[in-house]
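Thread: Newbie trying to understand structure tokens

Hi all, I'm a second-year student working on a class project, and my supervisor (Dr. K.) asked me to get a predicted structure for one chain before our next meeting. I've only ever worked with sequences, so writing a 3D structure as a token string is new to me. If someone could post the tokens and maybe explain what I'm looking at, I'd be very grateful. Here's the chain:
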Amino acid sequence: MTVRPLSQKLGVNIDHVATLRQARRAAEPSVLEAALEAEQGGADSITVHLREDRRHIQDADVFELSEKIYVPLNLEMSVSSEILKVALHVKPEKACLVPEKRQELTTEGGLDLFSKKKQLVSAIGALFAKKVEVSLFIDPIEEQVREAARLGAYAIEIHTGSYANASGVKQKEEIERIRHAARLGANLGLRIHAGHGLNYENIFPLLEVPEILEFNIGHSIVSRALFVGLSKAVSEMKRIITGGK
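---
Reply by user tm_fold:
Sure, no problem. This is what the structure looks like when written as tokens:
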């Protein structure tokens, strides 16, 4: 029997609230109001991705959230100098370094830590100097996990997209990959997070991976919120993660 950790946490990504706002370049829906609603529902942190093309979250959103929310702000970001400059000014409690392609609809996979090593070392060092906890968004690959530890990251966020898109035998294989990466990362002293494509149904097998301490979920929660409201949508997911506690 797998013993689940006592305090698995939920980070709520509210990018898609900004996506709806930017469809009209209007003032609503309010990203800040969404964050506060998510807090009321039990979110342990708020995640936003400040993309280089500013397709949803804007710089002003990041500054406002950093000043007005009560839970930690987790800033997803590329290692571009422009985005790093914003992050160093805002000094969010957490930063998750992610890959970014202009043409992608959403983040398509984890960072290749070997191809961007120089930029990563510089960004991690600069963020740590501002007391920002840095996580690296990577696929569940042993070499990437080991490199994350060598780079001195505080945490890794395991990309769960391949798992979320799989079924049958392939899905079971993906669970084992995640389980192995999580165990290895924890043994190397990394905190383990997971996210991408997770919803109210497929999260259950990952709750049985005891090394995963935090889940970052956005699209499914915002989608559910259309029907029940954001606070309730968050509380439903939080109840799943905490086992109804």
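A couple of things are worth pointing out once you decode it. The chain has a mean pLDDT of 94. Residues 168-187 form the longest helix (20 residues). Feel free to ask follow-ups in this thread.
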